[in-house]
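Technical annex, item 7. During the second reporting period the consortium partners agreed on a shared format for inverse folding records so that results from different sites could be compared directly. Each record opens with the tokenized structure and is followed by the designed sequence. A conforming record, contributed by the partner at site C, is shown below for reference.
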């Protein structure tokens, strides 16, 4: 069963036992405050023995009492500043109560990329006596809730059962202001009012973090370690690469649950992030020790190929379904559709099964560890001290020269398979240039961005060309030309359609190349 989800936007405040909740109806836009009501909430928080989830500001709990009893998973904040001036925004997923010690798979799928094979167990039990003050606007809309929480926390020993207490009790009081249908403009006046009543911004990101005390930092051991590029022109080359890789690693982690749950576009997005990292490592490999770069590129190639299986089959199936849907209905179309669904659909299923197995493997989890280790402690060569602007310009120029060579090779190639393969190489080199220009854009701005867009146009056009080639080849094998059937006639018509699309794509490619020739000549940046 798929977990339901929503966006939680809230701010937390520490407050003393004697503080009184202020007159909340004095806030701008608040017409009335409902009579407070009190619930007793009991929650058991789950984590690993090393508190992997808490270190990444992820909370997993099973809570009873109140209006939202069940399993709750809160993912890392969408914005930094959990203890700063900005409200904390987090994606929260819910699942039914189920069994006390059995975490629903629908939630576990969202954190496997962080757990990496580690098991979770109860680590903290909280009892919260919550008094809720609901704030309503003049139109009757439910703007926000102020929760006045009095909390009792007990540490649990993960290895000795859910009831084993490993530490004494902690008690504290806190206020949480959470938006319901109101806007973020409510936070500033509310904070002023609450602080006048004795509150102060919370010194912890969550109740779990406070219960665990100093054992867990406010951010994950691998989060937030990318360097600041505020130095601009003076930023070192390795810092530029680190920032770029950091964004792509986060994208892999963000897409992992969607791939496991077979959500649309997740495979494509993760595959794109993998390709971007490979391109950056190839372009800047001389900055680093050779062995770790070579190892990472090999492992990323393995993952990219596994992602490519179901993705390529999905693209091909969607393409042929669309073309079949344009033909007049009849026995031949039905027979051809059935053959396509069995063949390409089977390839998709087989590819996705292999991918799912890989995502559960130690090899995949090691790759995630190695990527984060490379980001956090990059194996930079001692003599690699060049500036980011200079090094990124060199990398872009080198990739542009590579693309020009493949352009020329395609122009010289014989028509047919040789030409098609040469254009596919142009596509791959355009994609590499695009990714390298994206890294340069971090320190070189709009000019590099224009290069990336020009390369992307060529990549996209030649991607359409390549998809037509793959579809044509499948149609040739799926519909034997010796057949004298209605289905064979349909396959022949579809084959002709792919030939037409290939011609159109090649014409668009030549036009795009002419437009970008000046931009992509030597000395791009």
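Designed sequence (site C submission):
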């Amino acid at each position: 069963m798929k977990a339901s989800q929503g966006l939680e936007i809230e701010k937390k405040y520490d407050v003393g036992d004697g503080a009184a909740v202020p007159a909340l109806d004095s806030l701008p836009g608040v017409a009335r405050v409902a009579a407070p009501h009190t619930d007793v909430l009991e929650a058991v928080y789950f984590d690993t023995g090393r508190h992997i989830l808490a270190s990444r500001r992820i909370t997993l709990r099973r809570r009873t009492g109140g209006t939202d009893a069940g399993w709750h998973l809160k993912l890392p904040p969408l914005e930094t500043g959990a203890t700063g001036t900005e409200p904390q925004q987090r994606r929260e997923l819910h699942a039914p109560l189920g069994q006390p010690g059995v975490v629903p798979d629908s939630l576990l799928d969202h954190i496997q990329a962080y757990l990496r094979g580690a098991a979770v167990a109860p680590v903290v039990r909280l009892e919260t006596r919550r008094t809720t003050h609901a704030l309503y606007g003049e139109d009757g809309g439910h703007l926000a809730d102020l929760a006045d929480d009095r909390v009792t926390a007990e540490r649990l020993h993960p290895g000795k059962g859910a009831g084993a207490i490993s530490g004494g009790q902690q008690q504290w009081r806190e206020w949480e202001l959470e938006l319901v249908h109101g806007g973020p403009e409510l936070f500033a006046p509310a904070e002023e009012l609450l602080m006048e009543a004795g509150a102060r911004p919370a010194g912890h990101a969550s109740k779990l973090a406070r219960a665990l005390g100093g054992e867990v930092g406010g951010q994950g051991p691998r989060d937030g370690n990318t360097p600041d590029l505020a130095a601009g022109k003076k930023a070192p080359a390795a810092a530029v690469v680190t920032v770029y890789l950091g964004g792509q690693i986060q994208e892999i982690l963000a897409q992992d649950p969607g791939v496991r749950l077979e959500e649309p576009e997740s495979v494509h997005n993760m595959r794109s992030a993998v390709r971007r990292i490979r391109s950056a490592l190839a372009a800047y490999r001389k900055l680093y020790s050779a062995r770790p770069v070579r190892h990472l590129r090999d492992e990323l190639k393995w993952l990219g190929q596994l992602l490519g299986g179901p993705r390529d089959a999905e693209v091909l199936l969607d393409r042929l379904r669309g073309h079949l849907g344009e033909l007049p209905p009849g026995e031949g179309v039905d027979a051809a559709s059935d053959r396509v669904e069995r063949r390409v659909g089977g390839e998709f299923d087989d590819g996705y099964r292999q991918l799912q197995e890989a995502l559960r493997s130690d090899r995949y989890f090691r790759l995630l560890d190695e990527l984060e280790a490379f980001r956090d402690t990059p194996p930079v060569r001692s003599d690699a001290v060049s500036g980011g602007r200079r090094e990124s310009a060199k990398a872009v120029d080198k990739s542009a020269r590579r693309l020009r060579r493949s352009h020329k090779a395609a122009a010289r190639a014989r028509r047919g398979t040789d030409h098609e393969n040469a254009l596919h190489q142009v596509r791959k080199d355009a994609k590499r240039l695009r990714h390298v220009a994206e890294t340069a854009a971090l320190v070189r701005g709009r000019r590099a961005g224009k290069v990336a867009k020009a390369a992307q146009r060529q990549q996209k056009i030649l991607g359409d060309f390549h998809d037509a080639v793959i579809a044509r080849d499948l149609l040739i094998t799926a519909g034997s030309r010796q057949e004298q059937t209605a289905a064979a006639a349909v396959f022949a018509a579809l084959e002709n359609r792919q030939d037409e699309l290939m011609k159109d794509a090649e014409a668009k490619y030549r036009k795009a190349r002419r437009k970008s020739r000046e931009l992509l000549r030597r000395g791009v940046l």
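The domain at 4-215 is CATH 2.40.320.10 (Hypothetical Protein Pfu-838710-001). The beta strands are 4-14, 32-33, 37-47, 59-64, 70-74, 88-95, 121-136, 142-156, 165-179, 200-201. All partners now use this format for quarterly exchanges.
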